Amino acid sequence: MSTLARVALITFAALLSACANRPAPAPVEVKPVVSSSPIDDGSPLAADVLFRALGLVGTPYRWGGNTPDSGFDCSGLIKYVYNDMAGISLPRTTREMIVMRGQNVGKDQLQTGDLLFFATNGGTQVSHAGIYVGEGRFVHAPATGGTVKLDSLSKAYWQKAYLNAKRVLPTEQHLARLP
């Protein structure tokens, strides 16, 4: 998916979520992120994960929630999207997700669908996670009273809290080797 198409898709999804019957969130300044490396979707499932995650923007946050009807917390959102769109059953908590099998990925190698892990309480213990959607942005369920939202890794808060990323979707190269 080209950079222009991805930006258009993310903008379109954000506009659609603004039309929902929920109160509009306070405006957030989003600065464009310029990547020096080409965008690589890495997996045919990545687009499905991207569309599903963006489609859930605006869903209410609920601690322990794991469905669109009940709301989501961060790990419930991730588990739901991966199971629904990729048939991948992930652990339920961020602590279990960060130690599961999967390729660790550097910030400069992020691809659509990669899982992002954060230590929002300080230190090095994971306490939050999201789904990378490209262009330096990710979808996550941030906090009580909020909703699932699209956010930017370039914000100082997320840069400070960032721990690592993990790839759980199969790559094109991996799929090509399957019988």
UniProtKB/TrEMBL annotation:
Domain NlpC/P60 residues, every copy: 43-169
Pfam families according to UniProt: NLPC_P60
Signal peptide annotation: 1-20
Keyword annotations of the record: Hydrolase, Protease, Signal, Thiol protease
MF terms (GO), sorted A to Z: cysteine-type peptidase activity
GO biological process terms held by the UniProt record: proteolysis
PANTHER family the record matches: MUREIN DD-ENDOPEPTIDASE MEPH-RELATED
Protein name (record): Peptidase P60
